[in-house]
């Protein structure tokens, strides 16, 4: 069981890092909210130490080990509680933890389904399951001073206005741009960022 890893950061990817330990390189998956502040934990010499959750994913013909990295034991403990929810495995949890842990813990405690549904991969049913399993059990995580790490999700109107501004800059007419935004939202109502909205518009245009 690998509980910590310390070495030289060789590469940062979208949701993982490559750490060299005495000539052997390990890929460590990092939740998005932790990835945003990871640079502050890298030494001037490129050294970094992470607390790790070591997991063996069983495929039909083999077991595939992988590591999930955290900056401290409290973050890891919350992750371990989060994956006790039915249907939330380690990979789903890595994706879902896109907001500060204190914010997610508070949402669970206050039955804030709207915020929980804003997490990647979490819909109405899963949000209710998270509350049912963890409400009243995550209070200490709400005390974490990590609320500055990431902004709360923007309202849908702000996301649509941002996408509209980009389309206008790309020389689309306002009425045409509004229609494109509206159709994209209708096709994918779970869109949470202007970037996702613009990607949906692009896919929509390819089908025309």
Automatic annotation (TrEMBL):
Gene3D superfamilies for the chain: 5' to 3' exonuclease, C-terminal subdomain, Nucleic acid-binding proteins
Q: Name a GO CC annotation attached to this entry.
A: Holliday junction resolvase complex
Family annotation (InterPro entries) = DNA_helicase_Holl-junc_RuvA_I (IPR013849), Hlx-hairpin-Hlx_DNA-bd_motif (IPR003583), NA-bd_OB-fold (IPR012340), RuvA (IPR000085), RuvA_2-like (IPR010994), RuvA_C (IPR011114)
> Which key words tag this protein in UniProt?
ATP-binding, Cytoplasm, DNA damage, DNA recombination, DNA repair, DNA-binding, Helicase, Hydrolase, Nucleotide-binding
Q: Describe its partners and assembly state.
A: Homotetramer. Forms an RuvA(8)-RuvB(12)-Holliday junction (HJ) complex. HJ DNA is sandwiched between 2 RuvA tetramers; dsDNA enters through RuvA and exits via RuvB. An RuvB hexamer assembles on each DNA strand where it exits the tetramer. Each RuvB hexamer is contacted by two RuvA subunits (via domain III) on 2 adjacent RuvB subunits; this complex drives branch migration. In the full resolvosome a probable DNA-RuvA(4)-RuvB(12)-RuvC(2) complex forms which resolves the HJ.
What the record says about family reads:
Belongs to the RuvA family.
What are the start and end residues of every segment in region (Domain III)? 157-208
Q: Which Pfam families match?
A: HHH_5, RuvA_N
Q: What name goes with this protein? A: Holliday junction branch migration complex subunit RuvA
Organism domain of life? Bacteria
Localisation: Cytoplasm
Q: Which HAMAP family match?
A: DNA_HJ_migration_RuvA
């Amino acid at each position: 069981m690998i509980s910590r890893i310390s070495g030289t950061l060789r590469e940062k990817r979208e949701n993982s890092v490559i750490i060299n330990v005495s000539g052997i390189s390990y890929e460590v998956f990092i939740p998005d909210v932790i990835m945003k502040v990871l640079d502050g934990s890298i030494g001037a010499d490129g050294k970094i130490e992470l607390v790790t959750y070591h997991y063996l994913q069983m495929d039909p013909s083999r077991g595939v080990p992988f590591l999930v990295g955290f900056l401290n034991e409290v973050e890891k403990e919350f992750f371990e509680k989060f994956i006790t929810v039915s249907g939330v495995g380690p990979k789903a949890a890595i994706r879902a933890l896109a907001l500060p842990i204190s914010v997610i813990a508070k949402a669970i405690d206050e039955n804030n389904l709207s915020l929980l549904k804003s997490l990647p991969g979490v819909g109405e049913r899963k949000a209710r399951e998270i509350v049912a399993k963890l409400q009243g059990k995550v209070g200490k995580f709400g005390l974490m001073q990590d609320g500055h790490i990431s902004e709360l999700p923007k309202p849908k109107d702000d996301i649509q206005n941002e996408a509209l501004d980009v389309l206008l800059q790309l020389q689309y007419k306002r009425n045409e741009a509004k229609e494109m935004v509206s159709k994209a939202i209708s096709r994918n109502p779970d869109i949470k960022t202007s970037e996702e909205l613009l990607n949906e518009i692009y896919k929509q245009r390819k089908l025309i």
